[in-house]
Amino acid sequence: MYQILTFLHSTLRWLVLGSLLIAIIQAYRGYNLKLKFKPFDNAIRHWTATIAHLQLMAGIILYVKSPLVKYFWNNPGEASKKLEFLFFGVLHILLMIIAIVILTIGSALAKRKEEDQAKFKTMFTWFLIALIIILLAIPWPFSPLAHRPYFR
Ligand code: HEM
Fold first, then answer.
1. Is residue 22 one of the residues assigned to a domain?
2. How far apart are CA 35 and CA 72, in angstroms?
């Protein structure tokens, strides 16, 4: 179960990043070239938020199942001295939830805007902030906080 979850969570990361990148580029183009906000743009907005929410659910289940997180909460004093436990016990979940809340607000605001340019601009700004936070909070193999492989 734990292995399947880490595989799923690790793989979903690429879908989260890919969809966010496409949405940001599409919003940037739409705003700068003054394009119409088409149903395709709306689908990208919608699916980017949905994929992030799926990752949030996978993350929450993984958080409950992870032996690393269990150890952290059973021995908070001792575990906090090791960066990896602190990272997965607190930092990763906190930053990712903040990023997904920002993404969700941006998606909802963009949906409610009347003008096409305002929709693109809102999507671009909020999604870009979410992407930056997500990139910082991923345990990349080169991250100084905690490292995990690119693929499971
Ligand atoms: C966009 C959101 C997120 C992304 C891109 C992301 C990405 C990742 C990646 C790449 C890993 C390493 C997986 C591996 O072991 O190969 C990981 C680990 C983990 N993530 Fe996330 N994550 C996100 C959100 C969350 C959230 C919201 C939670 C908790 C509610 C969470 C909990 C965890 C836990 C507990 C681990 C480590 C489990 C372990 O090693 O025992 N993640 N995450």
1. yes
2. 50
Look at residue 29 and tell me if it is in a domain. Answer: yes
Strands in the chain per DSSP E = none
Mean model confidence pLDDT for the chain:
97
pLDDT (tens digit, 9 = 90+) per residue, 62-83?
999 999 999 999 999 999 999 9
Give the chain's domain count. Answer: 1
- Count of residues making up the chain: 152
Ligand 1 mean position, distance from CA 92 (Å): 7
> Residue 120 is encoded by which pair of tokens?
């693109």
Question: Atom 39 in ligand 1: which residue has the minimum CA distance?
Answer: 66
- Rounded to two decimals, what is the model's pTM? 0.95
In a domain, 146, yes or no: no
Owning domain of residue 131: 2-137
Question: Candidates 62, 97, 101, 135: which one to mutate for ligand 1, based on the most atoms within 8 Å of Cβ?
Answer: 62
Residue 144 resides in a domain: no
